Amino acid sequence: MRRITNDDLRLSLRQGLDDFLAKRGDILIAGLLYPLIGFFAAVLMLGGPFLPLFFPVAAGLSLMGPVAAVGYYELARRREMGLESDWRHFFDVERSGAGGEILSIALLLLLIFALWVLTAALLYILLWGWHVPDSPGAFVERLFTTNEGWALILFGNLAGALFAVAVLAISVVSLPMLVDRGGSAGAAVRTSIAAFRENRPVMLRWGAIIGLLLVLGSIPFFIGLAFVLPWLGYATWHLYTRTVERDAPR
Asked: Which of 234, 233, 247, 240 is nearest to 191 (CA)?
């Protein structure tokens, strides 16, 4: 394990952007999948009884972002080694023999996502009761003009931050490590949590950067995520290479 600094964050972002630009947008097709999912979720929820869960679901999709980025880790690894790395290699993670282990972590993150949505629903019921807003406008008005609305914003964001930090600690190193070295999901998650603890302040800044870029990428209609997600995926790979001693024994 290495100690990392804010300089490592800046360099990782810069190298991630270089990787993205080197692909000339070839991988935008994969990047568009995530915003399309978000837009579809919005269409389903904005006009029905699930309206209060729109923001928790839209924000919570970022909890699954590390899984969506696995293909970018593979492309960054191949480019680093001087191998051909185009969209055809996006799903080559089976090369590491860790497809099942990656799936295990994906299911863990899916469980955390489900717990987050359940928590958001319980907070809504506790603070607002079973009332379903008549329209998106009525929901937004109550959210920003009432005490219970501000309470929902405050406690909802605090709960969301806890879930986000948990996902960051679990995945920031584990998924790139499995793509790079294979091994077991348990060992990869333990390494990731240890790396997070060793570099907690810097890792929390990294989480804040991710959150800010995801918010900016979601405006408007999630389209910017087609650029932000590949960039963050490549950058996370480079942060992993700066955090973990890759020549250490398995």
From this structure: 240
> Does residue 8 have a pLDDT over 80?
yes
User: What tens digit of pLDDT does each residue of 174-212 get?
Assistant: 999 999 988 899 999 999 999 999 999 999 999 999 999
* CA-to-CA dists, residue 144 to 150, 173, 190, angstroms: 6, 38, 41
Please give the single-letter amino acid code of residue 97: G
Considering only CA atoms, give the Rg of the chain: 19
Q: Please, where are the H alpha helices in the chain?
A: 6-22, 28-45, 54-60, 65-68, 70-80, 99-128, 136-145, 147-171, 174-181, 185-198, 200-217, 225-243
> Comparing C-alpha atoms, which of 100, 64, 129, 91 is closest to residue 188?
100
Closest CA to 182 of 110, 115, 244, 97: 97
Q: What tokens appear for 180 in the block?
A: 């790079």
Give the residue among 146, 199, 142 at the shortest CA–CA distance from 172. 199
Tokens coding 60: 């919570």
pTM for the full predicted model: 0.86
- To the nearest whole percent, how much of the chain has pLDDT over 90? 47
C-alpha torsion 94→33→13→216, nearest 10: -160
Among 29, 31, 35, CA closest to 16 = 31
**pLDDT surpassing 60 at residue 31:** no
Q: What is the pLDDT of residues 132-147, one digit of tens each?
A: 777 778 888 888 999 9
Is-contact 70 232, C-beta < 8 A? no
- Cβ neighbours for 110, distance < 8 A, ≥ 6 positions apart: 64
Note whether 210 and 225 are within 8 A (CB). Answer: no
